[in-house]
Amino acid sequence: MPHAVRAALGQIRLGLLLLLLLPRPLIGQETFDKAEFAARRARLMERIPDGIAVVLAATEHPYPVRFRQSPDFYYLTGLEEPGAVLVLNGITKNAAVFALKRPQYGFPSYPPQLRDVENAQERYGIAVQPMEAFFTTLGFIGGAPGVKHLYLQLTPPDGQLHARTEARAFAAQTLEHPLYGQPQPYAVAIGRLREALPHLTAADLSPHLDELRWVKTPYEIERLRRSGRIGAAAVAEAIRATRPGMYEYEVAAAAQYINARLGADGDGFPPIVPSGPLTPIVHYHENRRQLQAGEIVYMDYGSDYQYYTSDITRTWPVSGRFSAEQEKLYRCVLEARNAIIAAMKPGVTLDGLRDVAEAVYARHGYRDAFHSWGRYIGHFIGISVHDVGGIGGAAAARPLPAGVVFNVEPIIQFEDKKIHIRLEDTVLLTENGAENLTAAVPAELDQLYALVKERGVNSASLAERR
């Protein structure tokens, strides 16, 4: 192994070791930053001086998985209370959260229900009101002088895995089933709110929220950095000790172990680990296939840390080295990824970054392949994996300011050859250029080849694992 590569990998492993040793507050001991969320609400209320706004929390679900709050509601409150409702008064600049008194089954729940928290207003920086008084209070506020608009999430709220446009498509699909089809809970709630205040003109709050969420605050950037470091450590572990005969689920398990070990709240999204002829399946989740010699495998994965996600993809050879054709394709994607990141600075546009990428693809002879994917180079990221911020139409010509976080994701695919190669990194745009938050997992060829050969949690032989 060349000395430079060995030294670089040593730095990566040292960084991951330091990450393991970083102090992390115990659950329940973290201080709630009420000033951060109050400032966000204040900025939103400045944008609605002629009305009131209602923001809906996510509803509780019956599945035995960790509850994750609606991104819009969490962005404005930091609260994980299911079924709550936030009311913002753009005229008086007052805010309150209305919460249910939920029935207690068996042992006390954790975290405690909002209505059971002593001095909740002092702790969270916002008034907590009983849900039983919601419509009475809303009618009083909505009838006050100067109130003209009722701001609602008329564009559907996004989720951890789905942008607003994707949420709208999912809602439409759920209506189509002849037996189970029904409106989404948020749509029912918005209908009732409009019926309760028919004298007010309904206006869409979502564009205002998108403008605020698009540019990240220092609080958010700190958590995105942490999410990026954890996600990078997880994907690096997945790459280690790859060899023919392994299963895709073993690759996924290695990453998920490190993600949990380093204190993440969960996966940013279910691990995507297609190999060989399955690589063109972009959102593949089966992860049951056995890796074969001479094939490539890629992993699309990320961490969810305190409601901020990372999103990383690395493609690597199962046998330890790419074939000549595979390496040619990989070098094109790698050069495009590096060129896009190098070009990121305040004032650049997505169209401009696409031009940078296209020049690389053209130089390698793959311009048509780039256009077959609509000149796609990535998406914004934050509380949601597909975060707010348009990537098409007029949005692609909008100058990017410092503070946006964009997932750089160049792809090359040939369906007839059953090959798909991708690299993806979570990148913060700063005043001085780009900061790759997931750079700790190598992409350069020499480092990648060396990492595949390292020992890791998947180093045991097939016989030992069985």
Q: How much β-strand is present in the residues?
A: 15-25%
For the biggest sheet, the summary is:
6 strands, mixed
Strand order in space, largest sheet:
4-3-2-1-5-6
Gyration radius, to the nearest Å?
24 Å
Number of helices: 15
The CATH architecture designation of the largest domain is Alpha-Beta Complex
Helix content class? 25-40%
Query: What is the CATH fold-level name of the largest domain?
Result: Creatine Amidinohydrolase
Number of strands: 17
Mean pLDDT: 91
Please tell me the total number of domains: 2
What's the end-to-end separation, in Å?
A: 31 Å
Could you state the CATH homologous superfamily of the largest domain? Creatinase/methionine aminopeptidase superfamily
Give the overall form. globular
Uncertain stretches of 5 or more adjacent residues: 25-29
Q: How does the helix and strand content classify structurally?
A: alpha+beta
Task: Give the class-level CATH name of the largest domain.
Answer: Alpha Beta
Salient structural properties:
2 domains; six-stranded mixed sheet; 466 residues; alpha+beta; globular; Creatine Amidinohydrolase; four-stranded antiparallel sheet
Task: Give structural notes.
- Residues 25-29 have low confidence and may be disordered.
- The chain has helices at residues 3-21, 34-46, 71-77, 120-124, 134-142, 164-176, 185-196, 206-214, 218-239, 248-261, 324-343, 350-363, 367-372, 445-453, 462-465; strands spanning 51-56, 85-89, 94-99, 127-130, 149-152, 201-204, 266-267, 296-301, 303-305, 308-309, 312-317, 378-380, 405-408, 411-414, 419-422, 425-430, 433-436.
- With 466 residues, the protein is α+β, with helices and mostly antiparallel strands.
- It folds into two domains: 3-20 and 215-465, Creatine Amidinohydrolase, CATH 3.90.230; 34-214, 3-Layer(aba) Sandwich (Creatine Amidinohydrolase, Chain A, domain 1).
